[in-house]
Amino acid sequence: MDRVPNTRFPGLRVLVADDDPMMIGLLSMLLHDCGIDLVGTANNGQAALELLSTRTADVLICDLNMPGMDGVQLMSRISALGQRPSIVLLSGEDPRILDSSRQFAEAKHLTVLGVLRKPIAHEPLLALLARFQPDKPHAADKVEGAALSRRHIRAGLDRMAPRLVYQPKVDLKTGNLIGVEGLLRWTDPESGIPRPSGEVISAAERHGMIDELTFAVFACAARDRRFAAHKGLAINFAINLSLENLKNADIADQMLMIASRESGTPSDFTLEITETHLIDDLARILEPLLRLRLQGFKIALDDFGTGASTMQMLSQLPSTELKIDRSFVSAGPLSAQGRTFLQSAVELGRQMGQSIVAEGIETAEELGLALELGCHLGQGNLFSPPLPIEDLIAWQRMRAGACPPEGT
Q1: Which of 118, 230, 358, 363 suits a disulfide with 92, CB 3.0-4.6 Å?
Q2: Are 273 and 293 a contacting pair, CB within 8 Å?
């Protein structure tokens, strides 16, 4: 029976790079069967790079083992291009080589749709192409601008530059909205240039102003929590803490004062901690954390699995929540090794009595696997991108089947 052409990918441009003419022919036939007519081919990495330098491809299907410029070198060169295609890795190599190659591509800020092992079949190829998202921003894209000085941070704090958007945290079994994470958005009050939150936090730490920034962010979250509760949305609000904040012995009292001022209680808030370095002075860090927990604040270990100290932190800090990093969540459906790592992180967290959050869920496959492996909560663009507080309330009302009243 003739295959009915698939028309789910109108206008999708695919480049196949493989040194085997038979594989190029097979992939070209399968792509045409998927309804994709804009197919280019290259028989080595250098030829593929030249094509990508002169015309755009949406997806590159790339063999790893090619003579001359191999697939790894090709991906390294592609990362420097202005227009970068999404990548499908193709090889008959050992699965660990394939998975490491995927991680290498992601470290180069390339979007990896998945891995295809030879021999190639129609359905796996179709499933990977379905993951393509046009115009997806790359993690390496940054706004250019002068380094943030102490004066910039001071001016921003004085002029209320910190504002928050909120990404929902959803119960994976019920779909109910359980809480939100507040994400910093900062626009320089002098230049009007938006600044990446990591740059702002690093500058505040460098200039000894991280406590002021954190208290301003927490006050904003506490005000927005009170506003949301007044509109009928009483949920947990999370913000990020730096370990530098925990060097302040009085932080627990100051956080409690801010929460109380906005009619909140500590149990209304989760404080998320990320750290990629070993904790040098455990006693100094534990004192404020224990006091925060005793007051009722919840403590989350953020981006679990990405730092050298995450296992140490899980065993030593009084956390209540474990947030598994997006890199583990996205890798889970792509390979047996990725699934094993994700499963291990979930099982470890559950055995330690943590509420498990899968971060950065973007696909139905990632959602299904997170639920299957026992994650409690999910967070990511599959549910909603980060939203201003008013839009968050409207989003929740729409999910509940009620249109938001005018003027609210």
Answers
A1: 118
A2: no
